[in-house]
Amino acid sequence: MAELDSSAICPECDGRLREQGSETICEDCGFVATERALDRGPEWRSFDGEETDRRRTGAPLTRSRHDRGLSTEIGYGTGTDSSYDTRLTGRKRRQIARLRREHNRARISSKAERNQVYGFAEIRRITALFSLPDSIREQACSLFDSAQAENLLQGRSLEGFAAAVVYATCRTHSIARTVDEITAVARADEPELRAAYDALNRELGLPTGPIDPTQYLPRYASKLEVCAAVERRAREHATRLLEDGIVGGRNPSGVAAACLYQAASEREEWATLTQATVADVAGVAPVTIRSTVTDLRERS
Questions:
Q1: Which of UniProt's keywords are assigned here (predicted)?
Q2: Higher-confidence residue: 271 or 227?
Q3: Domain spanning 213-298: CATH superfamily
Q4: CA-based diameter of the chain, in Å?
């Protein structure tokens, strides 16, 4: 029952005001003095009736799931109640298990959805191993979906396309990841990745450009265990090569490694690096390091 407030007076008829729900109305003329549309109750819900499992909402929409994360699941219990299974008889438990199995089968209605489930799972695995942000994972899954809509997956491996879309997304966002790094964790080899990437770039027109060699410097400097001064000096070398237009047509990973090699050799107190060591870190041949170092020394 609503409480009466004798001190509140209606501005229209001097009658008494009463709170009813979210409104304050006059008992005599029905004038609505105030209304509160805000819900003062809790923003969470409890599904077990004991208010021990407080859930605000379900999972957000995501492109990394074939159904955008909107499908339902038949769970194994309600919240944190561990005695859920003990309240079911053996016959009922077997029935729920059959329903759960058939429900999971019904979630995938076609071969295309099955390919999406497998491809998206591989993309999530690769991006998790590289600690890439969620936006990269979402865009990679969207690119995989676009490739499937254009029938680019026919005759090519799903693993290769999953690795290719991650590599392509990193390229479009100027994230320095080489093909060797992707294939080291993917379930596809380099020819499969390159074939899928060429198809993506040719048919979808990816906005990929040359990668800035300076993007590789922090990671390579950490692997080679050089000081910050060497990295700063290598960044100066890479910037000068970019301004002179020498980087065009060269492997940016090799250019970054060559800049680190040249920077480390300029002072005796800095760690000495060999061309074979930096070439192994960058995944290039030592001759690639030598050619870039030669250009650097000619311009110094």
A1: Initiation factor, Metal-binding, Protein biosynthesis, Repeat, Transcription, Transcription regulation, Zinc, Zinc-finger
A2: 227
A3: Cyclin-like (1.10.472.10)
A4: 97
